Every structure is written in C-alpha cells, then in structure tokens.
Amino acid sequence: MRCMACAAEMILVKVIEDVTMPIPGFQRHAYMCSICNETEQRLVFNKNAEEHETEAAAPEPASVEPTSMPQGLLQTAKRVVRLLRAK
Question: Can you tell me whether residue 83 is helix, strand or coil?
Fold first, then answer.
C-alpha cells in the first residue's frame, strides 16, 4: 500500500480484531509510512479468521445437556427414552 501524502510504501504496524462487527473475521490494520511517518487505518476482512472462529465455536453434540431442566425431570426423560428403545 502507498502513502497518500508522499506515495512511499506503508508498513503494517498493528492488527486488531474488530469485535464491533456482527460477522467475525474483520480486522483493523494500522499502517505507518516508511518516509513521512503518516499513519492510516483500514478495515480488512480476513476469511481465514472467520473459518477458524466457526470451527472453534462448533459445540460437540454428545456433551450437550439441557441446563434449564430440573434434575428429576431429566432422569425421568432418560428412563422413558430407555423404555422406548427397549420395545
């Protein structure tokens, strides 16, 4: 990327994840000019970060149990499922 002030090469100095966007993968890149030290920020979409987020956020279905169900009701539901499978 080129500097708007002097057309010299810009150097990437900082990358910050943008959590204000509703879609994961956006980053704010801060650049500094190699000659005049002007700074600029750009909003960049990183597709690889989005794929990594969705892989990390995927729950394992076998380990998920309802938390709002009272324990006695949960035990009764498990017994009913076992009885239905036995038939």
Answer: helix
Asked whether residue 51 carries a pLDDT value surpassing 50, the answer given is yes
Q: Is the pTM above the cut of 0.85?
A: no
Beta bridge partners of 10: 33
List Cα–Cα distances, 23 to 11, 15, 27, 34, 43, in angstroms: 27, 17, 11, 32, 13
Place of tokens 């990390």: 56
CB-based contact 13:34 (threshold 8 Å): no
The CA distance from 45 to 66, in Å, is 35
pLDDT in tens, 61-80: 444 444 554 556 667 677 77
Joined together, the tokens standing for residue 50 give: 């989005």
